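Fold this complex.
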Amino acid sequence: MTTLLSIQRVSKRFGGLQALLDITFDLPEGQILGLIGPNGAGKTTLFNAINGVYPAEQGRIIFRNKDITRAKTYTLARMGMARTHQIVKPLSQLSVRENVMVGACFGRLDMRLGQAGQVADEVSEFVGLTARLDQPAGSLNVAQKKRMEMARALASRPYLLLLDEVLAGLNASEIEAMTSTVLKIREQGITIIMIEHVMKAVMKVSDRIIVLDYGQQIAEGSPEEISRDPKVIEAYLGDPRLAEKLMEED
Amino acid sequence: MKTWQRHPGIILPLLVVAGLVLWPVISGNESDRETSFTILKAIALASSLNILLGYTGYVSFGHIVFYGFGGYVGIFTVDQLGWSIFPGILAGGIASGLLAFLLGKAILRLRGAYFALATIGVNEAMKAFINNFDLFGGPIGMVLKFSVYKPYGGAARALGMSFYLLAGLVFITIIVSHVIRTSKFGLGLQAIRENEDAAEVMGVVTPNVKTWAYVLSAIVPGMVGVLFFFKNGLIEPPVAFPLHASIELLVMVMLGGQGTVLGPILGAFAYQGMRGYLVISEIFKDIQLSVAGVLLLLIVLFIPAGAVGWLRHRIPTLRRVLA
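Structure:
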């Protein structure tokens, strides 16, 4: 399989905080990569570095064989990279259709308005927003706004989709629906990196998982391997052998 | 007929402007023509500002700089270089567009209040510069010689011609405003207004798009400036760069409804009408600008979407027509 995205020793500091340190991995085309870790581990920062929002200070990021370490966000959108936001960013006064059309118009295929309108209708049906197309985006609830962000991203016809906590704040049945949507997106040949806290879902859809803690990669592997990794358990739950150690000291 | 069905939003704006132009033609009264000229000028300026303020969401407090600068360049070509008024108008528009292009490169990276403050600074800096620029007459400005009007059949005919030129300019402005609003470019502008970060993530090349919006909002004010000072016969710094006029333009756009084609037209109409009443009223004649200030405050507090925005919200069936 060809490599779509290659992260090579990427580091980023915010003042005294080492937000990312030597992150390195390759993402083959067609995979779903789960990115997990405790709050503040640097997951969204990594998205921002890949996406050009806050460029990495050290290291290189290669996307479709081009060095994009310093590329602008809008250039990346045109190259076929799309993302959703952890905190949704709707274009509130515009209708849902217009929101999705922005994604189509300024994305990889640089569509004209007419074509973008058709694509917006298709994609909105795919994510289940057809009934809301003419509503202002500001009037949607959180689950619908997350679906709309996804529709905007898909309308740009991306190669790579960065999903930042699309399941957060959703109820059980909404999570079920969203997970199956994610799997359907992969079937269309779109490669996905997803940041997620809902473990059950991320274990179910990911082909591979990377765990970040304090800006470092502490584990990498299949969902099964990750769920058994002592370092991961420690990052999430604290030292599993802490009780034993305390007993020994007594 | 088909065209009208596809563009319902342009019908009302065209009708309002057509009515304004026909009114003095039918009445044949010169003072009606002066009133109409003032309102048409306000419509052209407010509709231009709307491209930046209403569509793109960038508040420019110093938009009048383009009117003054374009006016100066155009009058210079007519007075000193002996050009005809037609290329003079074009020169003013191009000069203002170029100024906006250069300014945009420098200050459009600022957002929100910082951009608004920078625009005030630009207007004041330009006024100070022109005050000391001898080629444009410094503090005295330029007075058009009577002979300038000869090719157009004398001063009286030239005044009449200015009115029709302005009317043409206003028609072009609102058609351009409508075309922008319904284009892909306009969709990009509105995305920037709603959330600039989200727009960038979706691929809107924000630095370029914002610069073009700024340039497009500056060209017509430059042309209107040339026309107004040609008709006026005199241009001097305080008349060319009045900061309060910038704020009045903001009131017009906000009053009528920012981000719509019809809004700035109605806003300009209503504000000029009110102003005409206030300046002759005993109580308000000295404080008409304070009334503008209070009006702006009330709009921002109670109907931030302006009259047209409010109607669109209240009566969704009118949305297609009230664009």
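Chain A touches chain B at residues 51, 53, 72-74, 77-78, 82-83, 85, 89-94, 98, 101-103, 105-108, 112-113, 116, 152, 156 (CB under 8 Å).
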